[in-house]
Amino acid sequence: MAESVVLLDFWASDFAQRVRIALAEKGVEFEDKEQEDLFKNKSPLLLQSNPVHKKIPVLIHNGRPICESLIIVQYIDEVWTDGSPLMPKDPYQRANARFWADYVDKKVYPSGIAILKNKGEAKEAAKKEFIACLKLLEGELKEKPFFGGDCFGLVDIALIPFSGWFYIHKTNGYFNVEEECPTLMGWVKRCMERESVSKTLPDRRKLYDFVESMWKKSETQ
After folding, report:
1. Cα–Cα distance between 77 and 33 in angstroms, integer?
2. pLDDT digit string (tens) for 97-114?
3. Domain spans of the chain?
4. CATH code of the domain made up of 5-79
5. Looking at domain 91-220, does it have CATH number 1.20.1050.10?
6. pTM, full prediction
């Protein structure tokens, strides 16, 4: 029986991009079922596959759904063992990778969203928190090529999709990440040299236009 791999995603989703990168790193072919409307008219397949959160991404492997991007990436690493591992073998290093990937979700993502949602003092506070988060990650990266050392892995996959926000914040005149965190931007450039990343992340201008249109639409509702 042929293996079935289906991905429910959306092109602009940072979380879905993680899964695409992981699949590309492992050389896994999949059927892409991109969701056309993530807000009002969610597909029956999405609602059936992720009835708890009703969100993408969802990986459906041989008819069984796996939800939540970081869980999916780790699942991919465990199931498809060919190619470079995405997680360290050492238990402590694995725990450390999970910690920083979780940090991206719990600290970097909320502060980045807060910059776009807020105005005035709240926006300034969000900007400071976002930069502080990036500097902390920069301190963890140090002089290593990737967060896992020489190996591109879970933390890199967790964070690199959000690099598209750096362009959005710079274009809007909020701040320049390259000036604030040059070491981190060097890491971004190394990640972009990987085919799995460069072919997955959307064009920055296209992403900028999409995000701007979404926020304008939300303000009028």
Report:
1. 21
2. 999 999 999 999 999 989
3. 5-79, 91-220
4. 3.40.30.10
5. yes
6. 0.94
